[in-house]
């Protein structure tokens, strides 16, 4: 392992450690609506990609369509996601964050900032940290589930395997005795 590789591995370990503080936040503001982990992921993705379709959202996040649909329905019932008809195809819909969600997101972001400020302490160079946002944004954008797929594939795990890769037949006791 090169020195650069070791530094990158240390950076990943630090990212994972910091992420643990924010994965299951302690909510200390009654105005913040608690969401399940899946609901947080869906809201975060719609926040990043406003106007996304439910099908694309499910594909991007690697979710079964039924799981994505359930999360979207629950978030819509709670007033966090708005579904609007797709102007290009009225059979489809587009997703957007509602004002209720924006308010909660703003409160959570303020809480995240306070938590990070507390974790970093007084000696942290916040200006240097804030100026390094671009590489972090690149990581979160470029490594998002949106990635190129080979033509003709949907990226769904339910796609049937090629015909030539059928599973081997189980041997039965009768076959073993013969």
Question: Would you write up a description of this structure?
Answer:
The protein has 178 residues and is mostly helical. It is globular and about 55 Å long. The protein contains 8 helices and 2 strands; from the N terminus they run H-H-H-H-E-E-H-H-H-H. It has a two-stranded antiparallel ribbon with strand order 1-2. The protein has a domain at 36-119: Winged helix-like DNA-binding domain superfamily/Winged helix DNA-binding domain (Arc Repressor Mutant, subunit A, Orthogonal Bundle). Strand 1 (81-85) and strand 2 (93-97) form a beta hairpin. The protein has helices at residues 3-23, 37-48, 54-61, 65-77, 99-120, 126-131, 133-142, 173-177; strands at 81-85, 93-97.
List the helices and strands and how they pair.
Layout: H1 3-23, H2 37-48, H3 54-61, H4 65-77, E1 81-85, E2 93-97, H5 99-120, H6 126-131, H7 133-142, H8 173-177
Antiparallel strand pairs: 1-2
Helix pairs in contact: 2-4, 3-4
């Amino acid at each position: 392992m090169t020195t650069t590789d070791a530094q990158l591995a240390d950076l990943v370990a630090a990212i994972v450690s910091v992420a643990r503080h924010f994965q299951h936040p302690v909510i200390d503001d009654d105005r913040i609506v608690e969401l399940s982990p899946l609901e947080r992921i869906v809201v975060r993705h719609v926040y990043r990609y406003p106007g996304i379709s439910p099908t694309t959202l499910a594909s991007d996040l690697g979710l079964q369509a039924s799981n994505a649909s359930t999360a979207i329905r629950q978030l819509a019932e709670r007033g966090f996601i708005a579904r609007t008809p797709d102007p290009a195809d009225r059979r489809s819909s587009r997703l957007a964050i509602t004002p209720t969600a924006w308010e909660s997101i703003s409160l959570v972001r303020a809480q995240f900032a306070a938590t990070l400020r507390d974790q970093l302490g007084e000696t942290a160079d916040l200006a240097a940290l804030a100026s390094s946002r671009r590489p972090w944004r690149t990581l979160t954008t470029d490594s998002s589930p949106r990635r190129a797929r080979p033509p003709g594939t949907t990226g769904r795990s339910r796609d049937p395997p090629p015909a030539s890769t059928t599973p081997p037949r189980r041997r039965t006791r009768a076959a073993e005795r013969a």
